[in-house]
Amino acid sequence: MTNTFSFLFTLLLLSPVISIIIISAMPEKDNTLVWNVALTLSSFIFFLSSVVWLAFSYTNDVSSEFLNDNLFQGTFLLIPLFSQDWDSFLNIKPFIAVDGISILLIELTTFLIPVCFLTSVSAIKSKIKEYVIFFFMIEMLCLYTFTFVDLFLFFVFFESVLIPMFVVVGIWGSRSRKIRAAYQFFLYTLLGSVFMFMGLLYIRATLGTTNYFVLLNIMPIIDEQTQLLLWLSFFCAFAVKVPMIPFHLWLPEAHVEAPTAGSVILAGILLKLGTYGFLRFSVPLFPVSSFFFMPFIFLLCSIGSIYASLTTLRQVDLKKIIAYSSVAHMSVVMVGLFALTPQGIHGSLSLMLGHGIVSSALFLCVGVLYDRYHTRIIKYYGGLMQVMPNFSLFFLFFTLANIGFPGLCNFVGEFLCFLGAFERNALASFLCLMGTLGGVGYSMWLANRLVFGELRGKYISTFTDLSLIEYVMFVPFIFLTLIIGLYPSIITDTADPAIFDLCVKLKVI
Amino acid sequence: MYLLVIFIPLLSALICCFSSRWIGSLRAWQISTTFLGVSFLLSCLIFYEIGLSSTVCTVEIGYWFNVGYFTSPWSFLYDSLTASMLIVVTSVSFLVHCYSGSYMEHDPHLGRFMGYLSLFTFFMLILVTGDNFMQLFLGWEGVGLSSYLLINFWFTRLQANKAAIKAMMVNRIGDISLTLGIALIYVYFKSVKYAVVFSMAKQMQYCDFYFLGYSWNSLDLICIFLLIAAVGKSAQLGLHTWLPDAMEGPTPVSALIHAATMVTAGVFLLVRCSPLYEHSSNDIRFLVVAVGALTAFFAATTGLMQHDLKKVIAYSTCSQLGYMVFACGLSFYSVSMFHLINHAFFKALLFLSAGSVIHSLSDEQDIRQMGGLVRLIPFTYIFIMIGSLSLMGFPFLTGFYSKDLILELAFSTFSPAGHFAFWMGSLAAFFTALYSFRIIYYVFIGPINGNRVVYGNVHDAPTLIAIPLTILGFASIFAGYVGKDLFVGLGTDFWGNSIYCAAANTSTVDAEFLPVYFKLIPVILSFIGVGTAYVFQTQKIFQIKTQWSGAVVLFNFLNRKWLFDRIYNEWVSQKALWFGYVISYKTIDKGVLEYFGPAGLTHLGRNLSKFSTSLQTGLIFSYAFLVLLTVLLILSLTLFYFVELAIIEMTCVAICAFFIFLFVDRYVL
Description:
heterodimer, A: 3-stranded antiparallel beta sheet, B: two-stranded antiparallel ribbon, 4 strands
């Protein structure tokens, strides 16, 4: 069984590379063919990752057979792609290991890529081949980020994702400001990572290895004062990616300038890299420092939640609204994560996925409007319910999911985050909840301005409802939103062993 | 059957929302009304099995949350409380469905409307049947959503949009409080199931929880959170402002959601959590009493000076909810529930007949534009009269049995809280009679003020409107009499374990020994209210209003709803919007963070490069100067051990540094 699993997983890891090669060999002229092949390949990868998920859930029920296999390291399932005695003078070994957390994020990544292609078919008219290649590259690098557990390799892939994203924003962005946005995005993330790199070098110099599993055990060799500094250095890199207040400036800029698919990737996956970093590296490697800095994180997140919600209230750019709301939601994710209780961590993981689904869907909604009318300013829209009922229904649905309506996927994450945080620090939970009050304000106000109200025929005179492609694009999102909201065990059961193990290591249960 | 009663409305909602385009509005109406009728019949059966046969039933169908240590099942609890609520919800909902078929006849979106109504019913049933706080929360938010959709049903109207957002926002405050309450309950009880929480409530009496700088008794804090939630949903003082605005929705919606069912969810929550309130301290219960009594009084006075027919009734709802809340605070949960049930009937009647009036007057809602309708629509007049009398607590009508009982019991607790509630409630009863008859005078008896064209088209209630009115009219007369012994009779065991009342707080018996004089105070006040209304309307009230300055101030104060809206708008909403733009966006995001972040760095980099470029002047003396400067610097390092030289060098370097500073100052900063 594990052999099959390893094979499948290896195939999954290699398939984006294979896809890139196939796409490169395609004729330049035939756009339709490129799109079709890209869609087919990415859907196949999604299918493959779903199979991997199922297989993982199956092996996750640890029975004696699998324990004897020596392939489990804690809750991690090792993939022996490279031989164990890989020789390298830097002592960097390409360990590939997955647990429930990374499997879910891989699933999210592979789910979003075909959707990106779907939404780009009508929007992207130039350099299609390159576009597709860059998206496969993003997918590949994200997959590698989520699977390589060696600290150094993680860092390499974590940073490399920037490059294709930078190009996507810079080339296929919408306005001339896109260059500035791309630079901002690049520099912000790079500056944060410099600190992490220093921390990494220090760890390598002191402990002689960057192997995650070894580090988990020997990290206490470094004294606690230094661990605090190392935690901070990691924090810089991850906090920029999350993004936490006050490192969030790049996010609205990049979102506004990126093409729709770029925004989907940004909101859906790239922000999760930061929280994934916290969850995978900061917290388990430096448990004492994580507890030490818990109030600091709570402070930033409480401010972030309220601040971002209030700022969102006054934005007039559709994408900016959703970008700022992402900042608010990621604050909630961080509160749940740093509550360091099983509920909180579960909540933060669920909200990562929920946010990945819902805000991507909202960006797709904005993309639908932008493709038609080439403006994102709210003031030009109004009363779309009368002319675009299907679109309005979807938009309203995702808005409700965004404000955490019970029974839809964001609620699961948000509620568990608040629950977890409440056990640690009731005030932080309370303040973040106050932020969601603003969240209801901007979400419903946005929905009312866009969907309800009087039809503004003055600016836009022809209306078309969703096309078949767009319809098809939204349906899986609706399905996922509902299924996760009504039966969250579908994701929490996968992640449960990993999170339980983490909590045991943190000695919180 | 137990699950069917909940899911039939959902099915109806799905059919109406998604397929009314193909099956047509009429068919959608027929389907949803039939489905709701079936649901009502089933809930009657449930009432028999659960309520009358004194059993309890739980249906568990799976897990919702099973995360970490937090588990919450999908399970439905049927006890006497739920059974009574089921009757109320499904019956009123059925009648309103029926009524809407005629009231919304000409609306092209009738199908969608029926779908929303059914959706609301579904969520309300989830709310009342949930056997844990999570499901209650689902229903709680769900009815809020349906209320939002229904208020905003005519979504092209700006007022409807505003009212819908307002309802959502204000309710959200209550929802946040409920979330906090559930979180706190989970922290202490490690469960959100009613059965666990209520049976363990006594054990948690002496736990402390540190929150917002104070050490609270945890049970007290839970009760405060739940109370705020109830205040939000039941439109009590402070968070009531959404209810009158919600009257922008179609009238059947007002009858179903904003009178009979959804707004009573808060009271339902208080009754459901009676074990928690009974075990918390006296102060908390006094808080509940104060909130309820003040709301009863405040809303009744505000209702006096409103000119919108529906808004007056909305304030009256608010006031009656105040009665229910303070009854809960005085530990008369069963009486509160009884009033809830009775109120649902007569208030739905009032709203539906008001709808009939509005409908017959071509959607005119301003009572100053009406008058003399008693001869034109006598049928509706009868039912408004019945509803108003019942609302006032006219002896032996439905309202009398619960409202007067609440006041009697409040008096007979012989505590400051009880007496406060009694006097506030009695005054509110006086004002209730006053505004009820003010409406009746304005609409039916007074001189005709309306438009001639409108009056030419006046017609009395059509059959589909008349049937629900008649049924509710009979309920408004007899429901109290029929239900009195069952629900609040002395020593009734109807409620079983669904309501808990601590022995020390039980004082139902005392009311039996009150002198008749005290018992009659509210009734007498009501009659005085009727008389005052007559005097006010027939005498030259207008002159008093305009000539005596105090009256003008008072009138404005009441007409503007005690200025709550103004304070919230100017001091809360606008401040938040201002903060969101001026402080957080312009000053911080685009100001400080940009200055020390991207924009500042770009600026600095550009200026530095400009500076270094400007050093390359191409003039021989500036290069010579630079060379000199560098040589001096190097020399100063090498010759540092000669003290005198070093001093000279340092002076030179200082002078150069000064020049460099000037240079930088000029070109960089």
